[in-house]
């Protein structure tokens, strides 16, 4: 007679210390989830804190409707450059020439429109076209000749600044016609009325919040189906509510001033388009793969040269767009236009979470990083802070942002 012993459930683990190991594993997973949330949300928290700080220091002037509108108008071209720059940095490169390209594209538009009397839209097309050609020039030398991007774009910074001087003949040209000026100074208002405010701007803000909530929910569902870790639903709801509150407050302030700026519409379209490009397309995945490990990406079938080439073409295109916005904002073209813009764009990308080694960074993060720089600059100007002190503060913020990225990576390696 044989006795049968109860079979051990393979799904259970009765080894000594198995419970503690499972608890440790769960704790490690939670720690990694929290670390990821800190990396993604920490910049937003910092932005809210900086906005609140300057609101207190300026007695609420920084949050007035007129000042918020001015921030959008004054720093929109930096945000456009930051979108392109973060893609360049994610791909493991850098571009030091964008300030000079902004100057050159604005100069071309001015010569054609102001000097040549052509329609304003011809200047826009020509400026963007010149930006694309600059991107082709840089992409060829970096991708197909193999010269480091730092050297190529440093040479481009000097080359295109010199071409700007030649195109303008060392003089400024102004003013642009009204149609061109509307690109950076126009407003969409009065379309559906409003008593003391622009109802159309409020409606656009509400639609933006609804769209964000739907996309965030769909992203959460997709992660759950893929068995990825997600935040708790109450925390998810709080995040949506907080974003909605901030966006609607921003929309209300714009509506209480002059309405929805045209340049904000342009910027929003770019943010949405490049957000989808980087997260939902093959090209976007290849850019991250290239920046993470170029050799592994090549072995995985990524066409490294082609991806690198189009990264710089895209940067040239966005520099051309920024050149149009800046020249429309300043209502003219100057030989010294765009000075130090490249450093502002690079700072926005790094403050927004891009890694110095490539492979990490988001369009939204770069946008928030650029807004942090804009709010700080605007707030210090309202307080009458000396320009030299402003440079010191912005330099320290950039240094601490990169230091945080380095510390975060070291901590992640320690957890592994």
From TrEMBL:
<dbReference type="GO" id="GO:0022857">
    <property type="term" value="F:transmembrane transporter activity"/>
</dbReference>
<keyword id="KW-1003">Cell membrane</keyword>
<feature type="transmembrane region" description="Helical">
    <location>
        <begin position="43"/>
        <end position="63"/>
    </location>
</feature>
<feature type="transmembrane region" description="Helical">
    <location>
        <begin position="346"/>
        <end position="376"/>
    </location>
</feature>
<keyword id="KW-0997">Cell inner membrane</keyword>
<feature type="transmembrane region" description="Helical">
    <location>
        <begin position="197"/>
        <end position="215"/>
    </location>
</feature>
<keyword id="KW-1133">Transmembrane helix</keyword>
<dbReference type="Pfam" id="PF02653">
    <property type="entry name" value="BPD_transp_2"/>
</dbReference>
<keyword id="KW-0472">Membrane</keyword>
<feature type="transmembrane region" description="Helical">
    <location>
        <begin position="141"/>
        <end position="160"/>
    </location>
</feature>
<keyword id="KW-0812">Transmembrane</keyword>
<dbReference type="InterPro" id="IPR001851">
    <property type="entry name" value="ABC_transp_permease"/>
</dbReference>
<keyword id="KW-0813">Transport</keyword>
<feature type="transmembrane region" description="Helical">
    <location>
        <begin position="307"/>
        <end position="326"/>
    </location>
</feature>
<dbReference type="GO" id="GO:0005886">
    <property type="term" value="C:plasma membrane"/>
</dbReference>
<feature type="transmembrane region" description="Helical">
    <location>
        <begin position="75"/>
        <end position="94"/>
    </location>
</feature>
<comment type="function">
    <text>Part of the binding-protein-dependent transport system for D-xylose. Probably responsible for the translocation of the substrate across the membrane.</text>
</comment>
<keyword id="KW-0762">Sugar transport</keyword>
<feature type="transmembrane region" description="Helical">
    <location>
        <begin position="260"/>
        <end position="277"/>
    </location>
</feature>
<feature type="transmembrane region" description="Helical">
    <location>
        <begin position="106"/>
        <end position="134"/>
    </location>
</feature>
<protein>
    <recommendedName>
        <fullName>Xylose transport system permease protein XylH</fullName>
    </recommendedName>
</protein>
<feature type="transmembrane region" description="Helical">
    <location>
        <begin position="236"/>
        <end position="254"/>
    </location>
</feature>
């Amino acid at each position: 007679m044989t006795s049968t012993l109860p079979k051990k459930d393979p799904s259970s683990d009765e080894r000594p210390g198995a419970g503690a190991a499972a608890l440790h594993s769960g704790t490690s997973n939670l720690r990694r989830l929290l670390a990821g949330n800190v990396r993604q949300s920490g910049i937003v928290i910092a932005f809210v804190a900086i906005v609140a700080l300057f609101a207190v220091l300026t007695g609420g002037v920084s949050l007035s409707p007129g000042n918020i509108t001015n921030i959008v108008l004054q720093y929109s071209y930096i945000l456009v450059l930051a979108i392109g720059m973060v893609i360049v940095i994610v791909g493991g490169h850098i571009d030091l020439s964008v300030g000079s390209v902004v100057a050159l594209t604005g100069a071309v538009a001015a010569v054609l429109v102001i000097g040549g009397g052509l329609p304003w839209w011809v200047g826009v097309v020509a400026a963007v076209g010149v930006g694309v050609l600059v991107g082709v020039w840089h992409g060829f030398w970096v991708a197909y000749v193999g010269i480091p991007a730092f050297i190529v774009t440093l040479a481009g910074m000097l080359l295109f600044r010199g071409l700007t001087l030649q195109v303008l003949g060392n003089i400024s040209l102004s003013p642009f016609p009204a149609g061109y000026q509307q690109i950076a100074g126009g407003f969409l208002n009065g379309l559906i009325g409003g008593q003391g405010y622009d109802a159309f701007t409020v409606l656009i803000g509400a639609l933006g919040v609804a769209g964000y909530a739907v996309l965030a929910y769909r992203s959460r569902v997709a992660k759950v189906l893929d068995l990825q870790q997600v935040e708790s639903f109450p925390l998810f709801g709080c995040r949506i509510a907080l974003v909605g509150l901030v966006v609607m407050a921003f929309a209300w302030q714009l509506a209480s001033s002059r309405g929805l700026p045209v340049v904000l519409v342009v910027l929003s379209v770019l943010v949405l388009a490049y957000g989808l490009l980087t997260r939902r397309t093959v090209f976007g995945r290849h850019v991250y793969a290239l920046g993470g490990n170029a050799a592994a990406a090549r072995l995985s079938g990524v066409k490294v040269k082609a991806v690198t080439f189009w990264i710089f073409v895209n940067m040239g295109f966005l520099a051309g767009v920024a050149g149009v916005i800046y020249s429309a904002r300043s209502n003219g073209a100057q030989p010294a236009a765009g000075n130090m813009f490249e450093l502002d764009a690079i700072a926005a990308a790094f403050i927004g979470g891009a890694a110095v080694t490539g492979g990490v960074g988001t369009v939204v993060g770069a946008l928030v990083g650029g807004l942090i720089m804009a709010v700080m600059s605007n707030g210090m100007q309202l307080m009458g802070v000396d320009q030299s002190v402003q440079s010191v503060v912005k330099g320290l913020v950039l240094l601490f942002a990169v230091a945080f990225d380095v510390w975060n990576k070291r901590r992640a390696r320690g957890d592994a």
